[in-house]
Amino acid sequence: MPRSVELEVCELTKRYSPQVSVGPISFEVYEGEFFSLLGPSGCGKTTTLRCIAGFEGLSQGSIKLHGERLDDKPPHRRDVGLVFQNYALFPHLTVFDNIAFGLRLRRLAKSAIADRVGRVLQLVDLAEMAARFPAQLSGGQQQRVAIARSLVLEPRILMFDEPLSNLDFKLRIQMREELRNLQRRLGKTSIYVTHDQTEALALSDRIAVLSHGRIEQIGTPGEIYERPATAFVAEFIGSSNMLRARIVGDVDSAKIVVTEAGLRLCCRAESNDMLDDGADVSVLLRPERVHIETPGGAAVPGQNRVAARIADVTYLGEDLHLSLDLVSGDLLRASLKNANSTRTWTPAQAVEIVIDAADIRLLRR
Amino acid sequence: MEGARTRPIWAFLTGPYAVFLLFLLLVPFANVAMYSIHPYSPTKVFLPELTLDNYRKIFDLYYVRLFGRTLRLGLITTAVCVVLGYPLAYFLARAMPRVQALCLFLLIMPLMVSAVIRVFGWIVILGRKGLVNQALVALGLEPVKLLYSETAVVIGLVNIFLPFMVLPIMASIERIPPSLEEAAQNLGANWYQMFRRTILPLSLPGLISGCLLVYSLSISAFVTPALMGNARERMAGQQIYDEVLVSFNWPVASSLALTLVLLTVGLMFCALFATRHASRRETAP
Amino acid sequence: MSARAPRLLLPFVVAAYIGLLAPLVVVVAVSFGPSAAFEFPPRGLTLHWFEAFFASKAFVTAFFRVSLLVGLLSAALATVLGTSAALGLVRFRFFGREAVETFFLAPLLVPEILLGAALYLFYARLAIQASIWTLLWGHLVICTPYVIRSVTAGLVGQDPRLEEAAMSLGATRVQAFFKVTLPLLRSSLLSGAIFAFIISFSDINLALFLSGPESTSLPVHIFSQIQWQGDPTIAAASSLQIVIIGMLILVVQRIFRLRFVV
After folding, report:
1. Beta carbons of A330 and A259 less than 8 angstroms apart
2. Residue B74 domain boundaries
3. Cα–Cα distance, A280 to A288 (Å, whole number)
4. Is residue B9 part of a domain?
């Protein structure tokens, strides 16, 4: 059953000066989905968020909420909730009054307000804190109040502006899980802005990766990670080896490429079909897909086997990061789990690298 | 930072000014206090007996009217300053840095220029042959007497003390992060609702501070009422000046001065307390 | 502006500033006008009143021999007194420090006219004649707090570990102060000194009580001229003061902030 579109952003453009602008940006957010805008600082994700909330005007383009034009309404008349980066709780009001703020503006009856605030306080597990002031709460609690304050108004969509960036690491993981559970429970359409790709991957149904004011790719976490559409996405999400190469032929629906250093690789990832012989490409290879074996293994069709020497080993407890000098002269990085305490890798050791053809992705250069 | 040492260096550093203030602030006011409890004499400066007459005189009708007028004009000046100053403070607090720098300069510069000069300017504007009347005559109307009245005094006082209302309020509003304004709007408040429920309560300390400041400055003003008011409807400052330099009734001048000092210093202390209290309360996330 | 403030705000602000600056603009304009009747706008441009200003012995004495001199002396002495006091307050902890700090800033709380009266009565009691010196001592009382505030702000903003770093490299405490702390305080010292000068130069309330026949300051002379219905020479004198003070404030704004005035 096709999902309905809750928010439609069409050719959104914001011009700050002749040199600095964001857009055109277009995307759709479906009902009930968790949609992230991911990118480094300055990429335009916060600008897009503020345009949807109404704090910035559009130079061009349009925004539609459930089919209705949104961008011609002033910020206080848009049915979107916004959780600010620094929470923006009113310091002179109690937790209860903070949450009731929007309800009081709509002139609801006192009993109705008490009822709704009480329920949402239960939802975020802060019922005992109702009479406290924001300054008396911890970071995580303040964030929950900020979420409750927007939720209680039952907006069509809920937006988050990097809400976890002010928390320390362990708390961030915990709040991340709470956030995801909350969203799944309520089924509220959510737009989440972050520069942290782990957060985006963990929380989202779909991600839009932005850079320099444009969208690089929109897709599910799996799509973005496994099939990055551009070099930027490949490097921003996770880490990646990138080699310059040229396509020299194809065999059995797999492409053969030769790197600048002369290494021949066989690549079978799906969307490589669009590329022709002779095309200049970037070879993308995730470090965790580079397998290491002791020399002397048997060659298997669909696998690339290359001799190499270990240049450096970085011990990270849970992981091992290896730098490898290939016999062709190329450099690769590999990432292994420290799963076996008996097997050790040492610098200058001669090894064989095994790469599955399906794990190699080609991008046009 | 140093704690106790063999040589209290802090004493050498703070000593000079402390001694200076002792002799040029505390002692003169102690002297004034002393004058205020001795009776007046036209031949000697004062007589050796002690008396509270100088303070009882304050309850004479003349002085009651004087203080009443002074306090009333101070109140009016403060009220006008609030109405004019608050929007100005909000504008300055939220202005872009370059605009803010220019507007701050234009606000503070008149403060530093002597009050006489600003009053002189007003006399040129409001005088019988001044700007306003020239304009009225040009329109075919009768010239109006604007100077030498209570209204003129209030105009002058507001003009001179307005920055003292604007600056504390501006500082207060600047401490309110703009994200609070945006959050309120996002929750459904239009600008006026946002202002009333968010900015106003959080800027209250600055407002109180400004009011106390302007009030205490107004009730102890001299130059403006002296040049723009008249001798019959005078303020306390004028009376004190008169008693000291014209009537040489130093005991009465002293009791008036001391009363005024206690009043204004008390108010200023409250203003100081309000601002200190505010900066401790507003530890917003 | 961050939030969409009401449309009326900007015109209101402009009107308020016009009201605030009108008297100054009028004074400057009148000083260049030919008419002795304080005409605005002036019908022509002339430097006649400025010539009259420099020709008037009373004005010139008041400006140079009294106001300027006392102003410069106030600035210098207030800076020394105030810097030393600020150092003692900020860098040392001793019993009653906060009380002393409040005491040092007390002159800011006392209405100037009352301080003037108190000082006048005090000098009279001690039979001290009014002179430049009596005026100077009076000005020091009201000027030094500004220096203290400025230098305190500068010191508090400084990392105290800078002096410690200098000492770890072999400097004595005194050397560390003169080579590290003091140079970094340059802008605070300068703006404090300039403020002290401005306060002294434009003071009227103290000067009214403390001026004598030989030591009439410029504002006091202007005051008496206004009372005796003088001519636009007053405007010329005022314009000069406005220009000087305006330029000094610009300097302060460049090197420091203007906030701590109140």
Report:
1. yes
2. 36-175+206-283
3. 25
4. no
pLDDT digit string (tens) for chain A, length 365 residues: 568 888 999 999 998 888 888 889 999 999 999 999 999 998 889 999 999 999 888 999 999 998 899 988 888 888 899 999 888 899 889 999 999 999 998 888 999 999 999 999 999 999 999 999 999 999 889 999 999 999 999 999 999 999 888 788 888 898 899 899 999 999 999 999 999 999 999 999 999 999 999 999 999 999 999 888 888 998 899 888 888 888 888 777 778 888 888 888 888 766 656 677 778 888 888 999 989 888 887 878 778 888 899 999 998 888 889 999 988 888 899 998 888 777 788 888 889 899 888 888 888 87
> d(Cα B30, Cα B18) in Å, to the nearest integer?
16
Q: Name the phi and psi angles at A158, rounded to 5.
A: -115, 130
- CA torsion, points A121, A126, A132, A136, in degrees to nearest 10? -140
B198 assigned to some structural domain = no
What is each CA distance from C26 to B134, B173, C48, C86, C236, in whole angstroms? 14, 33, 17, 40, 11
Which of B20, B162, B272 is facing C81, going by the closest CB pair? Answer: B20
CB contacts of C21 in chain B (<8 Å) are 106, 110
**Residue B29 falls inside a structural domain:** no
> How far is A76 from chain B, CA to nearest CA, in Å?
4
Contact C85, B17 (CB under 8 A): yes
Domains recognised in chain A with CATH numbers: 5-235 (3.40.50.300), 239-364 (2.40.50.140)
Against chain C, the chains showing at least 3 CB pairs within 8 Å are A, B
User: β-strands A280-285, A241-251: how paired?
Assistant: antiparallel
Quote the number of domains for chain B: 1
Residue of chain A with shortest Cα separation from C4: A55
**Residue A203: which of A227, A225, A230, A182 has the closest Cα?**
A182
In angstroms, the separation between the Cα of residue B242 and the nearest Cα of chain A is: 49
**Residue C187 neighbours by CB under 8 Å, 6+ apart:** C154, C255, C256
The residue of B187, B200, B207 whose CB has the most chain A CBs within 10 angstroms, and thus the best one to mutate to test that interface, is: B187
Mutate to test the interface with B, among A51, A89, A95, A105 (most CBs of B within 10 A): A105
Please give the backbone phi and psi of residue A44, each rounded to the nearest 5 degrees, phi first: 105, 0
Give the CA dihedral A26, A32, A36, A37, nearest 10 degrees. Answer: 30
The whole-angstrom separation of Cα A4 and Cα B18 is: 77
For the domain that residue B55 is a member of, what is the CATH number?
Answer: 1.10.3720.10
Q: Taking each helix axis from N to C terminus, what angle separates A110-123 and A95-105, rounded to the nearest 10 degrees?
A: 130
Q: Do C71 and C219 meet the contact criterion of CB atoms below 8 Å apart?
A: no
- Among B residues 134-193, those touching chain C with beta carbons less than 8 Å apart: 134, 159, 162-164, 167-168, 171, 178, 181-182, 185, 191-192
